[in-house]
Amino acid sequence: MKVIIIGAGEVGYHIADSLSREGIDTVVIDRDEERLHEVSEMLDVQTVLGSGSSPEILKQAGMAQAEMVIAVTDSDETNMIACLLASTQCRIPIRIARIRNQELNGDCALFGTDRLNIDLIINPEREAVSNVMDLLEFPGAAEVFSFAGGRIRLLGFQIDPSAAVIGKKLFDLRAMEPAFKVLITAIVRGEKLIVPSGGSVIEGGDYLFAVTDAARVRELLRFFGKDTEPPRRIIIIGGGDTGLMIAEAIEQKNITVKLIEKKHARCEFLASRLDKTVVLHGDGTSQELLKEENIEETDFFIAVTNDEEANILGALLAKQLGARKVLSLINRIDYIPIVSRVGIDGVINPRHAALSRILHYIRKGKVLSATPLRDEKAEVFEFIALETSEITDRPFKEIHFPSGTIVGAICRGEEIIIPDGDSVIRPGDHVVIFTPRSAIGELEKLLTVKLEYFA
Amino acid sequence: MKARPVLYTLGAFLFILGLTMLIPLACSLYYGEADAWGFILSFGITSGTGGVLSFACRPGEKKIVLGHREGFLIVSAGWIFAAFFGGLPYMIHGALPALTDAYFETMSGFTTTGATVINKIEALPHGILLWRSMTQWLGGMGIIILSVAILPFLGVGGRQLFRAELPGPVKDKLLPRIAETARSLWMVYGIITAAGFILLLFGGMSAFDSINHIFCAMATGGFSTKDSSIAWFNSAYIDGVFIVFMLLAGINFTLHYQVLTGNFRSLFQNSELRFFLGTLLAVTLLITLDLRLHVFPEIGKAFRYALFQASSIITTTGFVTDNFARWPAFSQIILVILMFIGGSAGSTGGGIKCVRLLLLIKHSYQELYRLIHPHAVTQVKLDNMTVPPDVMKSIWGFFALYIGLAVLATILMSSLGLDMLTSFASVAATIGNIGPGLGLVHPASTYSEVPTLGKWILSFCMLIGRLEIYTVLVLLIPEFWKK
Fold this sequence. Notes:
Chain A is an alpha/beta fold. Chain A has helices spanning 10-21, 33-42, 55-60, 76-89, 124-137, 170-176, 217-223, 241-251, 264-273, 287-292, 308-321, 336-342, 350-362, 440-447; strands at 2-6, 25-30, 46-49, 68-71, 94-98, 120-122, 143-147, 152-158, 183-189, 192-194, 207-213, 233-237, 256-261, 278-281, 300-303, 325-329, 346-348, 367-373, 378-384, 406-412, 415-417, 430-436. Among the domains of chain A are: 2-122, 3-Layer(aba) Sandwich (Rossmann fold), CATH 3.40.50; 148-223, Alpha-Beta Plaits, CATH 3.30.70.1450; 233-352, Rossmann fold (3-Layer(aba) Sandwich), CATH 3.40.50.
């Protein structure tokens, strides 16, 4: 089994990492010799120096034996040509391309089987935008993931030191609010992932993962003492593609948004594209500008410049000056563990979002989606329950789940079930399941769904 | 400046203008009136001069190439000559024997102003009346644009002429070829005119009166075959038809073209149209209220006269159903302000034009907004398109020149011994191509009492108003004539 990855940027690197760890032969093509050297030092993959749109280089990379090509360079055109070569010259069965250009979106006939023949289009910026919009909708959460077509949500949020739930055991929570359906799937305390049981006690500063019905997210956040006030004043710094797309999406919700960009020419372009947004020319990390634009009254501050360090520092500065919530775009996965500790309320990670899209696509079987969480220490799967599986048609208390694995929600037709010990999974149900990475092997057997990659 | 292509084009243009005089000639012959000779002579002089001029300056093997400067010169000179040659029938017939009066009347006709120096209109023969209305109809869509549509040799050069004559800050080319664009604009103009003609016939108007009045309404001109204008017919139906067709004429013809070719969406997305209709609605309500309180006790009547007069003035037509000089000052002031606003760009109306005012308001608002957000980068947008800063500058320049020239002309008029109201209103009514003003030139009166020099000043106001200042004024700066 062999996969060719074109482009060794953040996305390419992390896909290569995941695939090679699963025992798949991975070849990485890139034009940057230094970067390739880094990749070959860190990962167990083959590297080829050259352009992904060159047939000669692709032949060198062993395209004839490959079963998948993933083109994730910065250039849409290179990615398209690479996929076209893959399908015309070698008939590689699966082709995935990263396309940033908005006009060439997934519905475009250009990518159909009789044209460029690309199976999956990923657009990290668009993923990031939908991520931001989820966070705007639920301001108290630091992470929001959607399952079952958006009807089930998994939320990640930090418990404030003054919250009423501190010191309570999990089964006490049920007693406090009997009608309230929610399942805590994991508690992260410091660096540790704790598998919760009824007796687990919530402490201040804990980071919780909770699954609930999409309609009750607000209720859930309020219960844990989180802010649910929808934002009315938003400042975005960085007018790149991501910033522009976020501003466009927010405009449609009739929320005032200010967009700060450094380059004047880019500001003019932004002003021509946006209608209600206030486009400001200046440095988004300048105190004067932020004060002039009323940062202390701002509900959300979103830092999405190309400079990650500036995003972190800008967000911290905004928090310091009084912004209610700050989000920061961070691509380097190394930074992610520290940001929530320094006070940033949420992270936008387009590469990560793109990576999970690719993982969904290539996971085999009845798995509908797979979302890596917390530095990939845990994953959340959505899958369709099979009749042959050991977990169907039996109450949960009779099933021996691997340690740490928790069924978060079941979606049966129109109904959303937050399970307890007596719940039963029926064939055909959509099941959202949370599992630490270490338990994936055991879980596979239980589900009789292979959580491996494609055949 | 290349003289030969300019003279050649002007000659061809005069030749066409002469040909149009054959239509009132036919009318005279039909009614068996004595002014037929006047038209035969005028036709001979106009087409003869034009024919000789273009024959003498024929380009030979070379192709005609017209630049910006030639374009401005041809259009300005074309209009100045047209007013002279177009006045010949009045002089020869004796309706207006003096050159000043004939020139004023014809300029007022071609520029679709509608200011008249004739005191007894109903005494004039049919041929002269038809010619009077025809000058308005021809000038409405533009006599030069008509030539561009007809003359095949203009080709690329036609674009310069088209731009110099068509009103509005931004000129969109409807179709890939300029001659096709000119033709389709004239076609739309003709179709709407024909529709209006039929509707007027239904109202019981005679065929002769219908054709004359619809010509003047579509051109937003305002000449009438009756001394008391539309008030003579005293019919709510006819008032209604005129309101509709004056408003149609005050809307951008590009929009009409799009609607006629099945694109209705553009109608709802056009912010200039919304501004135009919104302004009309607002002032109509204000005037209705004022008239209801002080002039007409019945609300229905107040509304009818208010709507008619507001439509007539905002589109710069100048038809009247009631002498607004007798209305309260509040209504009069609103009507004078409407004279400055005018119709839409690309319409037959005059004035500053709605789109310009709309953009000026937007731009001014943004200047205020920038005081609150000193670092904001803003762009003036119209229908989701950014208006380039150069266009904004040219609009501010236009606005300043328009007001400045109106002030200058008012001062000159008052120096001739006219009172303040007459001086101001006569300039406002001519530079905006409306027609009837206030004071000495109120709707029930004429411009015949204005001193000779005053008539020339007002004729010039009409010209710069119709050609939107830049086209004429550019000829007055020395740089224009340098090689």
